[in-house]
């Protein structure tokens, strides 16, 4: 055991310090499986005090650390740093407070997203952000990556629901920002911290706003001959002045996958399925649904199927939310992209993605949040085929560049992470990246918190560690 | 206001920042306490940076220069049936978009869909090194890079000068109805706020207006299709008796709140972030401040206090410290910050990252 590990071992009982290769293997990768890295150890704290002590230890030792929840990041955000440690936060999973009168929950970072809503349900409340991985992903990870979900147009992303944060910064400083109020005074530190991708420190306690569960839903699934028709229907819904809770589109390949995986049923002969959901008090939904039904009928669907009851609504969402994993049945491997384009250019973007896919001989399934222009092209490949991953990544890169060129973003909700760090400069100038890098250094002067993520390799200060880690060079740590 | 710098373009703005060692941007000066600074600090007026550069209603977004008056923006949005749901304040007073962001001021409508911070998408700004940069994006959803646009909300121009801002907007509900719900005491009124906030009705705003404080009634605004509102109102009244305000008196009332017309003219006006559970305790403080008025907004999450005299600021400050409620003075002669004030090292470090030569005043300047 290396010297640094021995000092670490003095802080943690053996059962909560993993350092044998067979134990570390499970942590080598996250939701972006194309990358792997082996940390020197995984530590499993059980209290905020232990997390603070670990971060201060890393600071003193200049030891890189990556905080990890359930490891569902699709951008490689929780990919370990070789030579560093992983701080696994799953045991900090207490809901510290649930205050229905003020509609807030105070939670530890390892609390699973869906557990917040489940705890709030008894009070008629829910936690709005609902990433597809909500049954396993943690609030700490959601905060680090400002996760989204299917309801962002109306309800915003994680950041819009974070009222307070207690965090330990990479310097070891413990800060408390915000609190139970929905309002704040002074700069919005919670806003700055949310979406930091683990580069600032670790959130220890998060105050979340809860919202009353909508009383009533009206969910319509409509099939269209072409993606363009589905896109036109979205434009018509938006132009009508309605504010749906969700507007989603799945293309033919995604539909095929959902059919195979969860036996979802869709109108036959459709190249695209649109899902629109209204929600609110029953009187409001009743008035709005008439308008929506008229708009959908006028959009010439092959077939429109309003959910007649809660079971049908759940079935519609089950098909949609299973689409990502379902695509895994069509192909041994796939990359999920997360670019955003202005909504009016959705049709054009999809056409170009289709063309690029055909040119590269790569199949691309599309599942996306049409209401907010957030695309999720699923790029299918077989990793056993030589060069296939590289070709898939090249296509993913072209799609991202197209999104930026159209005035959109390289990421709507997955974050930059490891995967898109080289595309940050497609969106931001050298000055802008420098500015962000300076802010990062303010939080983490040593570059030990999740180094190697978000910033392009050449600009990332932390990537001075690239290649041999200084401790490795000094013979203190080693890779196996 | 003796603004001596008045750039007319973003390039001129960047140049003005680079050539001025100490400066602070001001918009229309509707929250004058926020731009009080030392004599060596030169004021930069954003009045020459004006206009909506992009507005496509189908995108639910617009981009406008920081010096654009809110009234230009709200008028352009209204023409296309859209609005900023957080009810920006001081529209008639001439407040600018940039000043509204820098002050972090949201109105009663922030209750339903969130405050200004929840609708800001992107900024162009000039940092302390004089660099004109963009952060955030122009689309409704974006997770690339640090969320500096949010950080500028409430930052009082201490980290950079805003040049241009992109916002998300929503379709305006077709109609609204304001109800006054009766409550005997502040305690009872706060109970109504909590009950109504958790109800199925999805109120658009839940406020206690200054003139309601004596008799403690709750202003509850519903927004949506007209027939739905009429039906819901009957059920609301069955639970909380009250009356419907006429459209005309409701509009006057909300405008009065939006424009702070209810306040004393020259004394301190303070914004406080609180939660419903601390509203009653703050009410006790208010009773001891003779002649002070207050508006409890956003379901009990924001209080605006108009003190009867500058001398009352000390007592309010002490009380806010005891209650752990942070406040900021928008106008009048009172300390900029009231209540508890942490000074973590990170605040200084981030200030240094954005403004290495302290070109802009510090947030700690009183």
Write structural notes for this entry.
- The complex is a heterodimer of chains A (480) and B (366).
- With 480 residues, chain A is an alpha+beta fold.
- Chain A has 4 domains: 3-90 and 437-473, 2-Layer Sandwich (Uridine Diphospho-n-acetylenolpyruvylglucosamine Reductase, domain 2), CATH 3.30.43; 95-212, Uridine Diphospho-n-acetylenolpyruvylglucosamine Reductase, domain 3 (2-Layer Sandwich), CATH 3.30.465; 216-325, Alpha-Beta Plaits (2-Layer Sandwich), CATH 3.30.70; 331-418, Alpha-Beta Plaits, CATH 3.30.70.
- Chain A contains 17 helices and 18 strands.
- A 7-stranded antiparallel beta sheet of chain A has the order 15-12-14-13-17-18-16, with helices on both faces.
- In chain A, α13 (346-360) packs antiparallel against α14.
- Chain A is globular and about 70 Å long.
- Chain A starts with a helix and ends in a 7-residue tail after the last helix.
- The model of chain A is unreliable at 459-480 (pLDDT under 50).
- With 366 residues, chain B is of the alpha+beta class.
- Chain B folds into 3 domains: 10-171, Uridine Diphospho-n-acetylenolpyruvylglucosamine Reductase, domain 3 (2-Layer Sandwich), CATH 3.30.465.10; 175-258, Alpha-Beta Plaits (2-Layer Sandwich), CATH 3.30.70; 269-338, 2-Layer Sandwich (Alpha-Beta Plaits).
- Helix content of chain B is 30%, strand content 23%.
- In chain B, the strands form 5 sheets. Chain B has a 5-stranded antiparallel beta sheet. In chain B, strands 15-16-14-17-18 form a 5-stranded antiparallel beta sheet.
- In chain B, a hairpin with a 5-residue loop joins β6 (120-126) and β7.
- The two termini of chain B are 19 Å apart.
- The mean pLDDT of chain B is 95.
